Amino acid sequence: MRQSFVRAELILLLLLSFLPLCGENLYPDNLLMIGQEKETAFLVEKRSQKMYLYQGNNPNPLMVFTITTGKNGGNKMSEGDEKTPLGIYFFTKTMEDDELPPLYGLRAFVMDYPNAIDTFQQKRGSGIWLHGSDDPFKPLTPFSTRGCVAMKNADLGKVSSYITLDKTPIITVEEIRFRPYKEVVEERDLFLNLLESWRKGWESRQIDKYITHYHPLFRMDNFDYVSYKKFKERLNSLYSFIKVDLEDIQIIKAGDYVVTSFYQVYQSDKKRFVGVKRLYWVKDGGRWKILREISLPNKRWTPPKSTLKQGGKWMSVEDFRWENDPLQGLFRLNFTVKNGLKSPMATYLVVKVLGPDGSGYLYSREGFVPFSPSDPNLPLKRGRLLSLTTAQEMNIPLQYEKGFYPSRVEVQLFDPEGILLHSETITI
User: Fold this and answer.
1) What is the CATH number of the domain that holds 409?
2) Which of 22, 325, 382, 424 has its CA 20 to 30 A from that of 211?
3) This model's pTM is above 0.85
């Protein structure tokens, strides 16, 4: 009787210790930070022949698809081994059905294999795609491609709208590992802190602090670790200031490396860079270091000639409404920003609320900040980044000091390279 009681007691303790885990949200170990609410990532599990579409920070996949991968198991190492590579990749190009043999279905998205880590590990090969299948009525045969990830045409049509070139990642693993969400958040925060330390070291021109984030085997273009440090030291001696902003941060993990990807706005008194940057991190002595760094400059965007010929408004600010309460020191502005093109466009919105003397408030990421016309830092205070597809209504409240009387509002739209797209002034 005593033994039975002890046994029952032990079972009860085990069950109680397990209960907290049952209610804990589990999340894929790979997706430390997908990005903003609408950002997506694809996770391919070779063992189950499934592909999962995740969006934002939702622990549950948005969609699940049956796929097929390479005929041979294991990680891709060379051309023609018919293996699907394991790692983190980005889509670089779209190929439509008229460019493809029937085998590849209605569309193909080209992946950037070999990536920076693959090249470091001396892996070979090319032509790894996510593509459709030629027969919509035939079920996909598991492990039947020459290395690509293939799916039904109908399924590929469903996911196509969730893919943004050079931004949406696809992660291929043998088996998905799930962890409690709080552990994923802890690792995410670790990399956010590393990125902020890297950014501050760069912006403050503290080369010794900045270079500690780089791996001894770091390579970029013709630079190694030593020559890159000397290069940065020389640049720092030439610039009077450096300003670095990071937006739309992604943190993706696969195997023994992590990729942080973000939209970077860099400005100094002599140079400017706007575009996507990817940092490939590996461990060195137990600490994460940057092994490779890739920059993808943003191409200067101009509206299609057909749009210009038609004389249509391809970018506009309309439907102004405002309320002003001097007693409370409150000003509220409403308007609509419109993109007349079918394609999405990244745009910086800058709003200036001005008094009679030209001083006032500038709308920035930190909210409204005061400025004067002679403020030398004014060009560095960038507005809100919008990704416009059609129209977006803006509601902007301003709490100002008593004694300030708004007289006019200037609304400006800039492309990521600082080119003025549209300007509008309204009198209060």
Assistant:
1) 2.60.40.3880
2) 382
3) no
